[in-house]
Write a structure and sequence with these properties.
- The complex is a heterodimer of chains A (111) and B (118).
- Chain A is an all-beta fold and 111 residues long.
- Chain A has no helices and eleven strands.
- In chain B, the strands form two sheets. In chain B, strands 2, 4, 5, 6, 9, 10 and 11 form a seven-stranded mixed sheet that branches. Chain B has a four-stranded antiparallel sheet with strand order 1-3-8-7, with no helix packed on it.
- The model of chain B has no long low-confidence stretch (mean pLDDT 90).
- Chain B is an all-beta fold and 118 residues long.
- The termini of chain B are far apart.
- The chains are: A mainly beta (111), B mainly beta (118).
- At the A-B interface, strand 4, strand 5, strand 9 and strand 10 of A face strand 4, strand 5, strand 9 and strand 10 of B.
């Protein structure tokens, strides 16, 4: 059983549409991160959230950390083909510096 | 600094052979991590180092796996007597230690070493 459950597993949308992906757990995290990974490459960090209820914006991407620090969401506005990739959430417990990853959401944005 | 470097990018080996991968982290980072990723899954934690000390090893890391970071700089991951189930992408990441031991700044990953055991 994965510590972090990501949904949906796969999402295919047209350019210009909005999308939201979710990351849920029964565990509390000291911090949570979102990464995007392209085929054959390592994940690239998008954002770190540490405070319950925190919202961060990165251009068209909006990240939210749940009040109880157990879940998070990533919302993309007006998706572009360049947003295509595997979106991974990763949580750190107890501030030990080790992150555990979810299985990811594969996002495909078609022109 | 060119980021985290991993070598080789691809490795094909016969079952039963030993393989060794190298990771060169970002020079200012004192923490180094190894993860394994299979198709359709997120990265799975294998082990991590703070400087030269190996602080944790996952139960996924059988006796055939060993990792070292002899001088607190580069690291090697060796797999002995490879099995087909070892086929995966092996990812290395580095980070600096944040306040209170938390890695608030996140990982910088290398491009990975893709291992295929035939």
């Amino acid at each position: 059983t994965q510590l972090l459950e990501q949904s949906p597993q796969f999402l295919s949308i047209q350019e210009g549409e909005n999308l939201t992906v979710y990351c849920n757990s029964s565990s509390v995290f000291s911090s949570l991160q979102w990464y995007r990974q392209e085929p054959g490459e390592g994940p690239v960090l998008l954002v770190t959230v540490v405070t319950g209820g925190e919202v961060k914006k990165l251009k068209r991407l909006t990240f939210q950390f749940g009040d109880a620090r157990k879940d998070s969401s990533l919302h993309i506005t007006a998706a572009q083909p360049g947003d295509t990739g595997l979106y991974l959430c990763a949580g750190e417990r107890h501030s030990w510096g080790k992150f555990q990853f979810g299985a990811g959401t594969q996002v495909v944005v078609t022109p | 600094d060119t980021g985290v470097s991993q070598d080789p990018r691809h490795k094909i080996t016969k079952r039963g052979q030993n393989v060794t991968f190298r990771c060169d982290p970002i020079s200012e980072h004192n923490r180094l991590y190894w993860y394994r990723q299979t198709l359709g899954q997120g990265p799975e934690f294998l082990t991590y180092f703070q400087n030269e000390a190996q602080l944790e090893k996952s139960r996924l890391l059988s006796d055939r796996f060993s990792a070292e970071r002899p001088k607190g700089s580069f690291s090697t991951l060796e797999i002995q007597r490879t099995e087909q189930g070892d086929s995966a992408m092996y990812l290395c990441a580095s980070s600096s230690q944040g306040t209170g031991g938390s890695t608030n700044y996140g990982y910088t990953f290398g491009s990975g070493t893709r291992l295929t055991v035939v």
